[in-house]
Each structure stands twice: as C-alpha cells, then as structure tokens.
Amino acid sequence: MPASVSVGVSLKMYFGHADARRWFEQVAELAARHPAVVDGRVECFVIPTYVQLLPAIEAFRGTCVVIGAQDVATEDAGAYTGEVSAAELAEVGVRLAEVGHAERRRLFGETEEVVAAKTAAALRNGLTLVLCLGEDERVEATDAAAEVVRQLHAALDGAPAGRVIVAYEPVWAIGAPEPAPAEHIAVVASALRDAVDALDDRDDSTVIYGGSAGPGLLTRLGEAVDGLFLGRFAHDPDALADVLDEAAALADRRAGVAA
Q1: pLDDT digits over 112-146, tens only?
Q2: What's residue 259's pLDDT?
Q3: Domains of the chain by range and CATH?
Q4: Of these residues, 98, 135, 169, 246, which one is catalytic?
Q5: Which of 101, 110, 135, 147 is catalytic?
Q6: Helical H runs in 136-181?
Q7: What are the residue ranges in the chain where pLDDT is below 70?
Q8: CB within 8 Å of 221: residues ≥ 6 apart
Q9: Residue 170 DSSP symbol
Q10: Which of 31, 70, 81, 217 has its CA 20 to 30 A from that of 245?
C-alpha cells in the first residue's frame, strides 16, 4: 500500500479554452501552496483536452502537478488522421495517459482489444497509465470485483512494464447523483489491489475510485482506496481543495501506520 494518496481530475470536454486556462491558474496556485502536494504526500494529476495540454503544462510548471491526456492512439506514428500518439505526448511533457474510460467504450466502440493496444502504447512510451475499469450494471460487489479484475487482465496481460493507476469507475455510478456505496467500493478496490500486487513490473501502482466522486468520499472510504479520480465536482477549486485536505489526512494516517 503506497504511503502517498492520489487525486486526479479529468476535465473531459466541459471547459472551453479560456475557462480551462483560468481553472489551471487557480489550481496551480492551490497546488503550489498546499503542503501535502508540495511535499509529495498527495500526488495530484490533471487530465485536460488535447488542445489544453500545452497550456496546462505551462501553467503547472514549477508545481508537483502531473499532466495527462484523456486518450492515446494505438500506434506511435503513421497515417492515422485525428489521432495523437503516446510518443508525441511524452515528447511534449505529458506524463500520464487515460485509457479505457466507459465513455470511450460506449460512445466510440472501444473494445477490450483496443483498450489493450492503447495500454501497450502508453506504457511502451514511458507514460503512467490511468486505466479505467468498471462493471456496466449494478451487481453484487463480489460479482463486480470478478468482472473488473477480468478487465484488468484483459488490458495488461502482455503489456510493457510500467506504473498503472487503476481507476475503478462503475459505469452505473458515472454522472449519477451519488457515488457507489462505500462498502461496494471497498470490496472491489481490495480485489483490484490484490490483483495488481500480483502482477510483475507494476511497481508503485495504485487503485483509486472515480464515478461521481467528490468531497467527503475519501474520508468515508479511508484505507479502502489509494485516492480519487474526480470529474465535475472538481470544477470548483474550493471543492478540489477540500479533497486534497482529505487526501493529506489519509496520507498522514498511512504514514503513522507504516511508522
């Protein structure tokens, strides 16, 4: 179990360019003065649109915030109109890549084979993988755990070495008024952590929760997860600050247990 706690934000396609740049400025200021982000107890990453990547990298320069992309191509170069390769993303300073989000699977028909190919592309180019997994329908926690562990292996079996941030996002909870119940998340996250720990070449990998995650959830989850993956609830920097405070408290508890 890592001592640090991860807090990530995906902006999806909610912000226009000007709004995104204003948000970057506010969050960069927050990150620069938040003690737990500065000293590494809390890992913070932001995943904007492709067009916003370079302004984000510039805005967060000098902070510990890591910038990621919302998707990657399956290939590193070639005649793939409209695609962006993991190789180019790494070249400009992007350090994470999100793969397998439920919206990519549902809206754009991404199969498990495509997710596996994108996973391999991100890892072979040195990017940390943010791998999104989740069951489609609400089922018993043990059944959900079996399904997402299957998805994990489908994406990672045979993939290059590298760190993975496993983002458990039950599809039925994405965009819902409330996240999945804490007890459900705990069962699934525990199964995912055991599965990740059993893999070779996945040092420092973590399991975080997304799916209508917001302030207060990390406190309720406690040791069940290694952090949160936020969406619309992080559009308000004050709400993000609250989550960073919760993450810092969790990191301190973990450090105390480790000591």
Answers
A1: 999 999 999 999 999 999 999 999 999 999 999 99
A2: 44
A3: 5-258 (3.20.20.70)
A4: 169
A5: 101
A6: 141-156
A7: 1, 257-259
A8: 182, 185, 186, 209
A9: -
A10: 70
